[in-house]
């Protein structure tokens, strides 16, 4: 048999891959096959919260492999998933709540929609402009990206997308037939837009009045990204369900739905399922990642680095007429431009800095939470050069 060569042509062309082939990573850098190092302000799209080759992840993987249990069906009990669920419940909004594990953020949101329907006996879902909740049929229906939606319509019926922050339109949309309202406390794909805490409180009251579940999608903004373990902690508003994914297992595929006790009580065996969700290997890694991120000193460092980054980007904006606005919290920021952002992403990559877009005109910055102050300064200097 002829030796197979690495060739992207065998991969389905749903990604327009760019740049070099990466073969290794260390700290906040990716290393290309020719040895060139790239400072990474993408982190696998907010996945690699602990960067690359972090000892916490490496040691957890080795410990899990030593047990011999990579996968065990959810028909049986295993300790890692139970410990992880208990830790998430203990650290979140409802000490009597429960957790469902899956494999991605889209699956977590799809699950949350099903749970809301079962609990409420209702079917309609309300989402908001600028939202991104996934690419499966229900999560895509709640995602405000017409170009993503159009080729796959009709999607799930009964989903409305309402202008973000418009209380009158939201009041009209959320009715006695509404099963759930879903929102990102800090929108990611929609341009890195923090949602006003007053609007979230308004949604909480409206959902209580109409008997709807309030779902916070923290797939991208959760787990330390904003400087607190969960983004909702900075708003004073408590959801009924919280969806997590990206950084949860440190780069291994894992999603989760945190449910309050009222909704959890409505679910019974057979109502939902997953083959791989919460398996022993990924749950072992996720538990150590969660405990690392949740350390008060770790979160304080994220807040301090985030404050510096926000100030640095504000100075950059003041010196560049291309920049219309800078938005974000913690280590999740967007630079809104008055022109398409893609050429600047390319220019940054040519200078060995990886950034990405959040919509057509926004440069998104989501580095590892472990990034050093020096690497932050180096990256901002490259961005200033690119935007000059």
Description:
The structure is a single chain. The protein is of the alpha/beta class and 388 residues long. The protein folds into two domains: 8-53 and 296-387, Aspartate Aminotransferase, domain 1 (Alpha-Beta Complex); 58-294, Aspartate Aminotransferase, domain 2 (3-Layer(aba) Sandwich), CATH 3.40.640.10. The chain is 37% helix and 19% strand. The protein has helices at residues 43-46, 55-66, 79-91, 105-120, 137-141, 146-149, 167-173, 197-210, 261-264, 280-294, 296-319, 342-350, 373-387; strands spanning 22-26, 29-32, 37-40, 98-102, 124-128, 159-162, 178-183, 186-187, 193-194, 213-217, 241-244, 255-259, 323-329, 332-337, 353-354, 356-357, 362-365. A seven-stranded mixed β-sheet has the order 4-12-11-10-7-5-6, sandwiched between helices. The protein has a four-stranded mixed β-sheet with strand order 1-2-3-15. The chain is globular and about 55 Å long. The mean pLDDT is 96.
Give a short summary of the structure.
This protein is α/β, with parallel strands linked by helices and 388 residues long. It has helices spanning 43-46, 55-66, 79-91, 105-120, 137-141, 146-149, 167-173, 197-210, 261-264, 280-294, 296-319, 342-350, 373-387, and strands spanning 22-26, 29-32, 37-40, 98-102, 124-128, 159-162, 178-183, 186-187, 193-194, 213-217, 241-244, 255-259, 323-329, 332-337, 353-354, 356-357, 362-365.
Summarize the helices and strands and which ones pair or pack.
Layout: E1 22-26, E2 29-32, E3 37-40, H1 43-46, H2 55-66, H3 79-91, E4 98-102, H4 105-120, E5 124-128, H5 137-141, H6 146-149, E6 159-162, H7 167-173, E7 178-183, E8 186-187, E9 193-194, H8 197-210, E10 213-217, E11 241-244, E12 255-259, H9 261-264, H10 280-294, H11 296-319, E13 323-329, E14 332-337, H12 342-350, E15 353-354, E16 356-357, E17 362-365, H13 373-387
